[in-house]
User: What shape does this take?
Amino acid sequence: MADKFLVTGGGGFLGSAICAALKGAGHEVYALCRGSYPELESAGIKIIRHDLEDEIPAQVGALGIAGVFHTASKVEMWGRYESFYRTNVIGTQNVIKFCKKYGINRLVYTSSPSVIADDSDASGIDESYPYPNNHLAPYPATKALAEKEVLSANSESLATIALRPHLIWGPGDRHLVPTILKRAKVGRLVRVGLGKNKVDTSFVEDCVAAHLCAMDALKNNSRCHGKAYFISQGEPVYLWEWIDKILVLNGLSKVSRSIPAGLAKSLGRICEVLVLCLPGKREPFLTRFLASQMSRDHYFNISAAARELGYKPRYSIDQALKATFSSQGKVVNS
Assistant: This one.
């Protein structure tokens, strides 16, 4: 049965992929975005231009939306806390307010495993792992606040869920893989630590499937209401070996330089202080959060998502690499 769905951040990497999947399944799709996206419109997806820092207009509420996928977020390693708070927290509050006001009873929120990052190894942990008292950067701090808002909003009239996909990549990726390649090309990609830290990743097609599973589960399985779930391929990789594979597939050399993890974190702190002291808008070469993410284990137990959402990754890491890169070693759609 066809439904109407709203996807916030519908012009983004994940958001646009969710829009396409919903449209392909025969649903009516509305993408709420700040900008214009002709490619979405040409695919029959209706664009609503709006900034989530403001309340969602009444005319959107009158559309008869069955469920909301809230993917919009400020995702950066650095920036002013207030900017992250406005987008990630106030924006989420406005989405929840919109759902409640117009009787929309399903909300799937795209969170992040970084909400529980505490600068220690996260090795096969599940959703019982607590939030830390402090975060190393505005992004995880505000995503944690937003996730809490979504989960606490769960009620008889609004069923909510938060998904925590880690390192989303694949065809159409505009951030993760392009950033790796850009840094490598200018000689700014340096291995942090011994290179033996294992991480989970999320191939975009499986990540989209997880979101669709979550929306269906909100309708059919009350056990998932008000909960967060880790999402990944369920196949942890050694981060730096995976990065080396991507570099080689794109005709670049493997990472040859390294820096001890402790030194990297100290340098990250120094870079943060220097950027704050210098005039103009600058981004530090390294931050404490980035140093931690590049040197620590970050892989998760996804059995709860399998059991309660029916999520099962279709792609292995090798299959995902083949699907993402052409035989000529170029990033597909990047």
